[in-house]
Structure formats: structure tokens, C-alpha cells
Fold this protein.
Amino acid sequence: MKKAILITTIIAGSLDISAAFIQSYFMYNVMPSGVLQFISSGILGSAAYSGGFGIIALGLLVHYLIALSCTACFFWLYPKWRIFNLSIWLNSVLIALITWVVTSQIIVPLSRIKHRNFDVHKAFIALTILVICIGIPIAYFAKKYYEQKDQ
């Protein structure tokens, strides 16, 4: 299972960070390094914006650790809750919603990132990205893993 979780994390995490880079560039003219500095600022505060490669690497590490947490939790819960056997699409939305709530309503407020007001439009974009980039890969590969395991 560790290998399946790791591969799924790499796929989902890479899709998600790529979407974050694209969205940030086209919506805010922010380069990928700025996205990773923003992630690092959750730990380091505003000092992250004056850092170089180490700060960028920290942002990438934190991003993949969050993706790993989402993946591992779903893989762990999948065989325990029968509802997950119903639909990859439903699972994708559930994974995205839980990821968004945990990230935006728990992790970010507890971090050193400056408070931002809730914006429905931005939340919708974030949830859409999470469904596509995090939810679908995790739901698909968990289902595939457990189907192969049962054979």
C-alpha cells in the first residue's frame, strides 16, 4: 500500500501544484517561485518572501506533505467506509471538500499566512482544481488499488 500511496501522492500533488502555478500566473501574474514562497510563509511568515532556493524547496515539501496526508487518509478510510464504493466522482468531490475545509479553515488560520477574507469565486475555483487534481486521482487510484488487492 505504501507504494500506491506514494505514486498517488506524486501524481495528485504534481497535478495540484501545476494547477496552482498556472492559476497564480494567469490570475495574479505570480511566478511558481512566488506560489512556493507563499506556501512556505505558512511556516516562516513574511520572511519566506526574501528567501531563495531553500524557501522554495520548503514550500514544495509542505505541498507534497499535505498531498500525502490527503492520500494516506483516503487510502486508510476507503475499505472501512462502504460509501466510498459507490462512485469515484462522489469520492472526488468529498476528497476535494474535505481537503479545502481542512486547508482553508484549519491549516491556513493556524499558520503564519496573513488572514484573507472569504471569496466565493476563489473558493469555487479552488474546489474545482481540488476535485480535478486531488480528488479524481486519489479516488481513482484507491479504488484501483483495493480492486487489485481483492483479486
Q: What stands out?
A: Residues 2-150 form one domain. Residues 120-150 form the longest helix (31 residues). The radius of gyration is 16 Å.
